[in-house]
Write a structure and sequence with these properties.
Layout (H helix, E strand, L loop, with lengths): L8 H8 L1 H5 L1 H5 L9 H4 L1 H9 L11 H7 L5 H19 L15 H9 L4 E2 L9 E4 L2 E2 L3 E2 L7 H4 L10 H8 L12 H4 L4 H13 L7 H8 L6 E7 L8 E4 L1
Parallel strand pairs: 1-4, 2-5
Antiparallel strand pairs: 2-3, 5-6
Amino acid sequence: LRRVWRRGFLTKVARTSVLRHYGLRTLMYGLLLPAPQIGLRGKAPMRSCRAAGHECGIHAWDHVLWQDNVRRRGEEWTRSQMNRARERFEEIFGTAPTTHGAAGWQMNEQALAQVDDWGMPYASDCRGVGPFWPRWGNRTCRHVQLPTTLPTLDELVGLNSIDGNQVAQVLHSLTERDADHVFTLHAELEGGLLAPAFEALLDGWIRQGHRMGSLAMLHRTVAKAPLPVRDVAWGAIPGRSGPLLVEA
């Protein structure tokens, strides 16, 4: 409800039909219904994902709380939220996480420092054009950022009359020539009503000669070459409401 007043939010809701994708019950979590602890309820599917070879890392302890607050919060709150997520991750998987992907591409200086303090070699917390060493103010981080480089499906559907049948073609046009990209998907979208579009997207990337892989694979590739140092700053992305962290 607070996001109703955020610039561009109602437009995004109208384009992506939030009620159809999430359902009324999910939308009531945290408002009229207590929010479930997914880390407890979803242990089995999470473990099966890793067993199938998928990379697992930290997203957030509480997605909405993080996304709506981290920009304005200080070190104590930030590290507390991140440590709670890490503890739950270790409870689920029995090992420490090796990477971090921020909810809503929202971070602050202390959050980037925590990624360093954990010794994570890479993370994907912002939007950008390629791998880089992130710098916040005068501080250059010790981990590599592998930013999301492509628009997400929900940023494209409904924009410029693009529908679910066309969205894969739009993304394919962006990956015809470039070798490496990072694409962010949402399980509740691409695993639900947008599943046909996602399958078409994967099929097209295979035809283009791309190989799907993890961030760890990408990091192993780019770590062999010198990377630029880039500032991170708050910016806007077409199709998404509110500011988020971008490669400056």
